[in-house]
């Protein structure tokens, strides 16, 4: 079983990083909603917001996801840990699926290759922040540290 680091010293940095990603996604979504308000929900026009192609549906989803990531980053419990892990997986899967349908009518979120790259990058960063953002009591952190640095001593007990 994989062991997530508990109370990692760089946890505040990871929370700030996921909060900044959430802030960018929220700003992108709000800007995109204003840019695409008169278009159809799944429009395929060349509408850009903050350098990424978008439509009204993708902008609305981005507003929700950005707000969720900011809420997760602002909490000091394991909610942010689970939210970042889930959001990282969602961004990675969405990026891969949208890349598969990029030049087809199934590209209902109006992705471009730059949007795919940003989605994959955000997914990797959020997954990494989720892996190191676990919070626990000091006893659990000490147990993890002891298991990590003295694995043979644990087997002799």
Q: What layout of secondary structure does this protein have?
A:
Layout: H1 11-36, E1 48-49, E2 52-53, H2 56-74, H3 79-100, H4 113-131, H5 138-149, H6 151-155
Antiparallel strand pairs: 1-2
Helix pairs in contact: 1-2, 1-4, 2-3, 3-4
Give your account of this protein's structure.
- The chain contains six helices and two strands; from the N terminus they run H-E-E-H-H-H-H-H.
- The chain is mainly alpha-helical.
- A two-stranded antiparallel ribbon has the order 1-2.
- The longest helix has 26 residues, at 11-36.
- The chain is elongated.
Beta strands, count = 2
Describe the global form.
elongated
Q: What is the succession of H and E elements?
A: HEEHHHHH
Strand content: under 5%
Separate helix tally: 6
The low-confidence parts are none
How would you classify the helix and strand content by structural class? mainly alpha
* Biggest sheet descriptor: 2 strands, antiparallel
In which range does the helix fraction lie?
Answer: 55-70%
Q: Whole-number radius of gyration?
A: 19 Å
- N-to-C CA distance: 19 Å
Mean pLDDT: 87
Main sheet strand line-up: 1-2
Summarize this structure briefly.
With 157 residues, the chain is an all-alpha fold.
Key phrases:
two-stranded antiparallel ribbon, elongated, 6 helices, 157 residues, mainly alpha
């Amino acid at each position: 079983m994989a062991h997530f680091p508990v109370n990692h010293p760089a946890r505040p940095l990871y929370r700030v990083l996921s909060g900044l990603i959430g802030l960018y996604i929220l700003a992108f979504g709000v800007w995109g909603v204003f840019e695409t308000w008169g278009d159809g929900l799944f429009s395929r026009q060349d509408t850009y917001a903050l350098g990424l192609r978008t439509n009204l549906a993708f902008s609305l989803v981005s507003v929700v996801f950005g707000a969720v990531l900011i809420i997760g980053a602002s909490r000091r419990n394991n909610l942010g840990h689970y939210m970042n892990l889930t959001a990282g997986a969602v961004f990675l899967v969405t990026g891969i699926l949208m890349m598969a349908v990029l030049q087809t009518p199934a590209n209902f979120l109006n992705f471009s290759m730059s949007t795919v790259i940003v989605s994959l990058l955000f997914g990797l960063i959020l997954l990494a922040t989720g892996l190191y953002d676990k919070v626990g009591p000091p006893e659990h952190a000490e147990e993890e540290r002891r298991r990590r640095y003295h694995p043979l001593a644990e087997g002799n007990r």
